[in-house]
User: What shape does this take?
Amino acid sequence: MVLPTFLVDGFVHGSWSVKGASLCLTPFRPLAAADLTAVTEEAERMLPFLGATDLSFTFPNAMAAARQSPRS
Assistant: This one.
């Protein structure tokens, strides 16, 4: 099975899924602030296409989550 993924500069950096009305993004590793902003902006543009209304991030571990915020 191949998961839906998102790219940063042409490389796979995470997976995504739609759960109910939420688009959930799960980076495989911490993203640079500029990359996180770009991924967030692109995901927000995809919400209507996917029939979702919310955007959420699931980080691989608590340390990565503490270092990142979708809205820097």
Summary: The chain has two helices and four strands. The mean pLDDT is 87.
